[in-house]
Amino acid sequence: MELLTPSGGTIFWTIVTFSGLLFILYKIGWRPLLQMLTEREKKIRDSLEQAEKAQSEAEKMIQQQQMLIQEAKQEAQAIIAAGKKSAEKAKEEITQMARQEADQMIEKANVEIEKSRNKAVDEIRNIVVELSLSATAKIIESSLSKKEHQKLVRESINDLGKLI
Amino acid sequence: MLKLGINRMVEEHDNAQHVAEHGVADSDFIMHHLLQQPVIKLPTVFGIDLTITNHVVMMWVACALLILAFAVTFRTNTIVPTGFANLLEAFVEYLRNDIILPNLGENGKQYAPYLLNAFFFILLCNLLGLVPFGSTATGNISVTAGLALLTLMVGQYAGIRTHGCLGYLKTFIPPGTPFFVQIILVPVEILGLLTKHFALAIRLFANMMAGHITILALMMIIFIFKNWLASVFPLFIMIFSALLEILISFIQAYVFTILSAIFIGRAISEEH
């Protein structure tokens, strides 16, 4: 059958044509194309790598920032705690001082009161002495009866009561 | 009505008789379309008839189209492809990543142009067979034999290049077998190698030819019955067959390429 019989001429032409095509397309198609594909693949890989790197860097940065924020927070808390402590201390001190001062003042006032009372008592005593002296003088001036004597004493006591 | 039906049946019977008488002439028509016809007669050199046939011309048309496509598309070497370049690149990238690299590995990258060339050349030859006034060069056993021969040669070249001449011959000896088994197995291995490439040629040829025989035979139905009613059904099947042919054009180009890649890959691999 002619259909299944290969002819040498056509095989020859096929090989020649194919080789020629391979030669030409290698120059204008396959080499630049394959090169381009490799290049592009490399470029994409590089870009991806770069992006990954950038992302990891950004993540690191975020972590750092978070750490910084955490630190700042802790510091702030420490400061606040220290402030509170010192405020408490100051408050206690002030209260202590105020109490001491008040105590001192009270003591002073007590002392003063005592002093004035003593003074007053002394004065009263003096007055009493004076009065009794004057009363005695009066009694001596007019010889006194018992009745008069009683009257005088009562008077003087009354006077004493007025004086106090 | 009944009479009309009977008349038609008689007519069809006559037609069938006509077919029986002229059947040989009709199948000749099919053969005429499948066989190559000389276009330019050239002398025979060293026993090779250099006559340019229509199939050779179709191969040249395919070459011209491919060269034109690549020349126009890749005039400027840009890293970002557009339009048609995208389409070509999609094919090339697919072939490179899914056929060539898995089968050949990094060492076999240099054979990528051959495989790409084979794919596009066969694909275009297949598709040009579907164009009116075209003929299928790949439906010619000589063309597919030439292509298979090229794959065989590239495979042997690749094997010798990788392993060295003696090293490549050693890959035909299965390791770990006694000597008397090797005597049997070495010819079997060589025969297997040749058979694989022979099958490569037959596969492409038969697939491409069969599709055309189907279409032509369906077309013949119309001429045989000489009845417009008989043209409706074959017409639909013909359109379907033609669409199927487009699919087969791609599949066969793919199959030829992947098998070539496997054969070359086997030749350059360490263990045979």
What is the CA–CA distance across the termini of chain B? 74 Å
| Largest sheet strand order of chain B | 1-4
Structural class of chain B: mainly alpha
Q: Regions of chain A with pLDDT < 50 over 5+ consecutive residues? A: none
Number of helices of chain A: 2
What is the alpha-carbon Rg of chain B in Å? 24 Å
**Largest sheet descriptor of chain A:** none
Q: What count of domains describes the coordinates of chain A?
A: 1
Secondary structure tally: strands of chain B: 4
Instruction: List low-confidence stretches of chain B.
Output: 1-6
Order of helix and strand elements from N to C terminus of chain A: HH
Percent in strands of chain A: under 5%
Overall pLDDT level of chain B = 79
Order of helices and strands of chain B: HEEEEHHHHHHH
Give the overall shape of chain A: rod-shaped
- Which two chains have the most extensive interface, and how many residues on each? A-B, 35 and 50 residues
Describe the structure in your own words.
The complex is a heterodimer of chains A (164) and B (272). Chain A has 164 residues and is an all-alpha fold. Chain A has one domain. Helices cover 93% and strands 0% of the residues of chain A. Chain A contains 2 helices and no strands. In chain A, helix 1 packs antiparallel against helix 2. Chain A is rod-shaped, with a radius of gyration of 62 Å. Chain B is mainly α. Chain B has one domain. Helix content of chain B is 76%, strand content 3%. Chain B has a two-stranded antiparallel sheet. The radius of gyration of chain B is 24 Å and the shape is globular. The termini of chain B are far apart. The chains are: A mainly alpha (164), B mainly alpha (272). The A-B interface holds A 2-15, 17-22, 24-26, 28-34, 36-37, 39-40, 43 and B 31, 34-36, 42, 44, 47-53, 55-56, 59-60, 63, 66-67, 70-71, 74, 77, 79, 88-89, 92-93, 96, 109, 112-114, 116-118, 120-121, 137, 140-143, 145-147, 149-150, 209.
